Amino acid sequence: MGRAPAHRPDQPLPVEEFNRLLVNYLPLIKSKARRHMTTHQPAIDELVQIAALYVLERRDHYDPSLSGFGNWLWYQLMAAWGGRYRRAAKNRARYERPIPVGKDGEQFLEVAVFEDPAFRIDLERVVDKMRRLRDADLLFDLYVNGIPAADFARAWGVSAQAVHQRMERARRRLVRALNGEEILPTDLVSKPHQFVLTHEPVVSAACAALAVDEDEREDRKADRVWFTSTSALSRFVDMMQAAGVVMPTHPVAEGRRPVFAMH
What we know:
mainly alpha; 2 domains; 11 helices; disordered C terminus
């Protein structure tokens, strides 16, 4: 059985009026892309272009007698961006964990969080870039797992300065990769890194409440990254800022939610 023909309105909106509405809604399209998809500006611009072209191709399908332009446009955006929108929404829900509060309603912890949930998608993008960059595993262990550079120096039989130089080169590779600059063959690894977050001892009831549940722990894979403590998250954000990625670092405010797990 074939697909039913697309709906064609009896009295379509004039082309000039449709184009005017689309132009007026471009800021909203950009806002939706930033909120639900990514905060990376070049990617936002690309998503807006994809959506605008998709909507223009279906201009004859809009029936003003059935719905308002904004409502119709929303469904077109989800169709234009396809499964990327649904995956982003699903991932955001999986990244969120509430901060425990005391009997007085006060939060146990104040940690760096992201004002917009879309920042979490950028974290996923950063980790994906890191998987393919040489010495990115060193960055991960230094900044996320919190392993001192001196430990690497002793294990490798080199000076701490040599470790820091290697770390700086890895950070420069990451900056180039995130900025879309050309990556040299010497910057890449033959097999993607399999990042594993080392266990951090639980030192308080607050940290215990933030730990990953047993059911989720069973589902872990070696190539997944889990933030099970605020210190690991903070170190990761600090490393991103040091690499030139702009991320908010203000303490938790009312109505904002932190990220304690991502994969």
